Amino acid sequence: MTHKIAILGASGYTGAELVRLIAEHPNMTIAALAAERKAGQSMAQVFPHLRHMNLPDLCKISEIDFSQIDLCFCALPHKTSQEVIRNLPKTLKIVDLSADFRLRDADEYEKWYGNPHTALDDQQEAVYGLTEFYRDDIRAARLVAGTGCNAATGQYVLRPLISAGVIDLDDIILDMKCAVSGAGRSLKENLLHAELSEGYSAYAVGGTHRHLGEFDQEFSALAGRTVHVQFTPHLIPANRGILATAYVKGDPTSVYETLLNAYENEPFIQMLPFGETPSTHHVRGSNFCHIGVVADRIERRAIVVGALDNLTKGSSGQALQNANLMLGEIETQGLMMAPLFP
Amino acid sequence: MTHKIAILGASGYTGAELVRLIAEHPNMTIAALAAERKAGQSMAQVFPHLRHMNLPDLCKISEIDFSQIDLCFCALPHKTSQEVIRNLPKTLKIVDLSADFRLRDADEYEKWYGNPHTALDDQQEAVYGLTEFYRDDIRAARLVAGTGCNAATGQYVLRPLISAGVIDLDDIILDMKCAVSGAGRSLKENLLHAELSEGYSAYAVGGTHRHLGEFDQEFSALAGRTVHVQFTPHLIPANRGILATAYVKGDPTSVYETLLNAYENEPFIQMLPFGETPSTHHVRGSNFCHIGVVADRIERRAIVVGALDNLTKGSSGQALQNANLMLGEIETQGLMMAPLFP
Amino acid sequence: MTHKIAILGASGYTGAELVRLIAEHPNMTIAALAAERKAGQSMAQVFPHLRHMNLPDLCKISEIDFSQIDLCFCALPHKTSQEVIRNLPKTLKIVDLSADFRLRDADEYEKWYGNPHTALDDQQEAVYGLTEFYRDDIRAARLVAGTGCNAATGQYVLRPLISAGVIDLDDIILDMKCAVSGAGRSLKENLLHAELSEGYSAYAVGGTHRHLGEFDQEFSALAGRTVHVQFTPHLIPANRGILATAYVKGDPTSVYETLLNAYENEPFIQMLPFGETPSTHHVRGSNFCHIGVVADRIERRAIVVGALDNLTKGSSGQALQNANLMLGEIETQGLMMAPLFP
Amino acid sequence: MTHKIAILGASGYTGAELVRLIAEHPNMTIAALAAERKAGQSMAQVFPHLRHMNLPDLCKISEIDFSQIDLCFCALPHKTSQEVIRNLPKTLKIVDLSADFRLRDADEYEKWYGNPHTALDDQQEAVYGLTEFYRDDIRAARLVAGTGCNAATGQYVLRPLISAGVIDLDDIILDMKCAVSGAGRSLKENLLHAELSEGYSAYAVGGTHRHLGEFDQEFSALAGRTVHVQFTPHLIPANRGILATAYVKGDPTSVYETLLNAYENEPFIQMLPFGETPSTHHVRGSNFCHIGVVADRIERRAIVVGALDNLTKGSSGQALQNANLMLGEIETQGLMMAPLFP
Q: What positions constitute the catalytic site (chains A, B, C, D) (predicted)?
């Protein structure tokens, strides 16, 4: 059986990445692609790399007959996303890639995103989409909220450690190095090749990055107490990739073994041998996340480094993984492609 | 039925690319991976991006039981390749990715490569592996010689034009822009990031690049007379891609229509609308070749631009496409993945 | 004596490059920096790399007292530039970096730029700013029109050959590879890091690039007859640099010697040994232009390759070189810095 | 008066950078350039970007008449450096760029570098070359040991804080992002463009990087007790730059003011406004170091970010700054050039 898929917000990078992935999926077919401002254009005009595919032209959301759709990916900006999803049929399966349904507390949402939430019913219903940790809920969900790409990376390196209580909860530092596609296809001066190439810098320093809302919610829930990490992202001159370097206090061997056990049966989370650390180049274009642990020369301090592709495992790959669960497909279907190297 | 595959020279970029592609192929399984100097290592050590795959460790060629192999990819350096292939079972299907069996004339081989050919029987038997133009021969072949990556690109933009006689044969210029992986995983100063990034230059200028041997052989055979093109490659700070800008003399509309007709039913060759030209970014990681034609402001001059990924369509993807034919598989099997963008 | 300098359009890349260069000039001081939309900001806010300099804040053009200015660099967009310059004091020395005064024929200007020229008196007075070929005129000029960066590169490799009559005038091909800063600090999708990095393509193919107006004007004047070259620019994933590969028909030795003689005493034009070709990486950040000549394997065909930095020798460095002449300074003053490598 | 300069190890990146800088120095002239394996070649062959300069050919060290040299830069690999310097005239002023004379304790040297020190007298005499903190000693020194480029960056962000006692000495994390030229012109697989571009990773994780020897020595001396920081370098796909993100515990305002006071009169150390952080792109090719401080959302935690160019302020620029002091020149002479942006 072939599932009919709609993608809203198909003219952005995560939309294009969804198309790329679904193209390899044996049991999904793309029935509708919406992009309000580019409605009427062919996908090949907007993304020439998809020229070979037989795809519907871009349309407006209002033109889609959702009764013919089995699952809808929503790759719209936050705020727009809730406004659209609020009005979609309540029986439609939805994987949202925006930030709108990640935070369960409406006040926290408003604090981090600056606007009040206007789809509170959907918000309450939404399941947090970090597949490896919410698998059963996702399987049963109608609306799944894809995580932030930084939020996913940070949680993969830290969640099992917080759950197991093997690290000091008051002293966690996440230094993250993010490739530029995470900022989307947006026309900003600092995203220009001439500005970014050959240079790199921190941004949203000091605890102001919105993905902290997710870290706070998830880590505090795991620990049963407030956990606030320090998180500093850096913009790196590369197109895809997130590298999270986590500095934690605890026994390095316990840290390693905790992660090893947690991810033993996970198809997409690959633990490196103790003492090795990953590269973003080795996960690019794939749904894999590589994690390594090293003991610092200072006792009871460990460095945990995780790498994933922000557009795949950090976003559209995660979304497809969740959609597989929601549609009763094998979870890894269409997602086992090897990374592109070099 | 699953075909058992061996890859000789698995520690280079084309070897890794073969593994990446075969991983998606439903009817092939990798039975042996050879790399003389790295024998004994796991593939994950040599190429960490393949860590998630269940692959045999690297071995020596002499350790492979070729009676258990259905098809062997040979991704060794030229000269080594002929020495190895000479001693393989004469019943073994082989796709060679080196330069050793591309030229049918042993003198031409020695002229361009500097060493005499020592596997003349195999050389006579070998079929030139430009799939779209040697499809029937390849289907029946035991030994297929993969083309040079530049040679493939140049032929895709020019072969139909030379066959149809719509361009001046004495005035063809191929200005090519090549990404760095075409030079292989070799430790040379000019391939260092610090030397290549942020700079670009021509190389092998003046008609000294070895792929000219292929152009001369193929174009002259098509035309029934000697055809010598001018070919200047340039090294560009990117990892994958070849962009060929061909300057030809002839009616631009005829040029376009000739190419359009020639590639009408080709799954991997995509003609752009007249007046548009392709980008390497839109074919990266895929087996597609995009071709565009533009009329110059000067009458009867056309510019034909072709783009492909040197490691995929220019090398390992082509090899797999040929292997599919040799094994009776669907030609496009395992090769329809969309490009990686961005 | 210190010359007081104003820069109009100081918030763009050529404006910033002028500041960088003038900072090293012993006899110039920056008295005014104008940028209409950013007036009131400090230069450090707009270009943090200039933070260490003691510079005036950005102002509006109308706020500048031009009676206190010895020379004004005008780095505004074309069309705006003529409107501004038309209203500047007629005694003010001006180096314009826009396209507005490059073409001597008003019809040609309108043909290539789409708008009628509205400062015809200034246009008639303007001297074309390719220093090495208009040195005496520039020394005496009040208004100098900086050349296009591609136009400069193409002329350096071709002018002496056209003057000397050593090449076929009807068969000249200029294949150019341009770095992204040539497009300015403009927010366009194809200039984003995510779109440009790892990909490259041709643009303005077929004789539509505006710098052809300059080639036509200059080459035809040199030859005493109409000369139309073919010119195809390509956008390369690098920040600075232009590489021009010129395909010409003529005796390669004569071609080389003609260039060697022409540039024998030029401080900024460096001829490589016969058979060698340059890299943009070796001129980056400098006012040098490297030129090489290679004989093709086909008789009487030569390839001439030139490299320069579009922002320096192609634009702001050229402008300063001209300003030195106009102000009676040593021509090379402030311009002999070595390229930045790596 | 013009000082005659020799550079030993002129075929590496720091050697070339010294030549680039000295070219702009009004009172220095390059009298000898040594590179053992490339002796006999011209500098233009080894570094074509220096082609325009009138430089002596590369020679062997043994061919230099050191009685004619006023100051010698030694840009050799560690271990080689001490063997060479041991045999130079004891009256010759030397700035060493290797690691050989950075550590005052011979056992520490052997611990970090694996070989015993064989020039102990010179080692005792050497002055540590972090100019801003050893200015008077350097002025009087005969032999100055240039710092590690990471070591310099880390010390600029931390020294004043450790001296002033405003941060917790037991909990300092230095997460560093390093461009590739810091690894030198060495042929290693991970330095290839194809391996590094589009990917990034940590290296020397866990307290194994040799520059920790310098941190331990300097920070412990400042504090009067043992101070061990955590230091994790990351390799970034860029050619020049080091970005140090320091996580410290202390009052952010005190942290900022301490740094502001410390660097108030330093020409090369630029403090950004509180709350802003620097980019490597804004110091590239210059001798400047930009430093910013941000308060974390967690109380009493500050993030200090420093950026410099590893080849200039981190190495050859520092060396020239020290040479200026040793020769009685103005400290900033030849070093005030603006960064290259973009």
A: 149
Give all strands of the β-sheet with D143-145 in edge-to-edge order. Answer: D58-59, D28-34, D3-8, D71-74, D93-96, D143-145, D127-128
Q: For residue C218, give every residue at least 6 positions away whose Cβ sits within 8 Å of its Cβ, in sequence order, or none.
A: C128, C130, C151, C155, C159
SS3 for C120-172 is HHHHHHCEECCHHHHHHHHHHCCEEECCCHHHHHHHHHHHHHHHHCCCCCCCC
Average pLDDT, integer, range D63-68? 98
Cβ-Cβ contacts under 8 Å, B237 against chain D:
193, 197
Is the sign of the CA dihedral D271, D272, D274, D275 positive or negative? negative
**In this complex, how many residue pairs, one in chain A and one in chain C, have their CB atoms less than 8 Å apart?**
55
Supply the pLDDT for residue C1.
76
Owner of token pair 């002479």: D333
**The predicted structure's pLDDT at residue A1:** 76
What pLDDT was estimated at residue B108? Answer: 96
Domains present along chain B, CATH in parentheses: 3-147+313-326 (3.40.50.720), 150-309 (3.30.360.10)
List CB contacts (< 8 A) between A198 and chain B: 197-198
Give CA–CA dist A326/A5, Å, rounded: 13
Cβ of C187 and A185 within 8 Å?
no
> Which chain C residues are within 8 Å of B277, Cβ to Cβ?
201-203, 205
Quick check: A155 and A269 in contact, CB under 8 A? Answer: no
Instruction: Identify the closest residue of chain A to D205 by CA–CA distance.
Output: A294
Residue closest to B308 by CA, chosen among B324, B292, B322: B292
Structure tokens, B342: 């961005």
Instruction: Compute the distance between CA of residue C133 and CA of residue C135 in angstroms, rounded to an integer.
Output: 6
- Give the tokens for residue A125: 């219903």
What is the DSSP track for C91-117? TSEEEE-SSTTT-S-HHHHHHHHSS--
Instruction: Quick: pLDDT tens for D175-194.
Output: 999 999 999 999 999 999 99
- For the CA atoms of chain A, what is the radius of gyration? 19
The answer to whether the Cβ–Cβ distance between A177 and D173 falls below 8 Å is no
Q: How do strand C28-34 and strand A28-34 relate by DSSP bridges?
A: unpaired
Per-residue pLDDT tens digits for C299-342: 999 999 999 999 999 999 999 999 999 999 999 999 999 999 99
**Cα distance between residue C228 and residue C241, in whole Å:** 24
CB A270 within 8 A of CB B51: yes
Measured CA distances, C34 to C5, C10, C76, D113, D298 (Å) = 11, 6, 10, 54, 42
Query: D46 φ, ψ to 5°?
Result: -85, -35
Nearest to D246 by CA among D262, D266, D225, D232: D232
Angle (nearest 5°) at CA C122 between C116 and C124: 85
DSSP B275-340: T---BGGGTTTSS-EEEEEEE-SSTTEEEEEEEE-TTIIIIIHHHHHHHHHHTT--TTTT--PPP-
Neighbours of chain D (3+ CB pairs under 8 A): A, B, C
Q: Do A129 and A95 contact (CB within 8 A), yes or no?
A: yes
Chunked into runs of 10 residues, chain C (342 residues) has average pLDDT values of 95 98 95 97 97 97 98 97 97 97 97 96 97 98 98 98 98 98 93 96 96 98 98 98 98 98 98 98 98 98 98 98 98 98 96
Is D72 a residue of the active site? no
C168 touches chain B (CB under 8 A): no
Q: Check CB contact of D191 with chain B, cutoff 8 Å.
A: yes
Q: What is the mean pLDDT of chain D?
A: 97
Give me chain B's average pLDDT, please: 97
Nearest-CA residue of chain A relative to C189? Answer: A187
| ipTM for the assembly | 0.97
Decide: C74 and C97 in contact? Cβ < 8 Å: yes
Q: In whole angstroms, what separates CA B206 from the centre of its chain? A: 22
Catalytic residues of C: 149
Report DSSP state, residue A76.
P
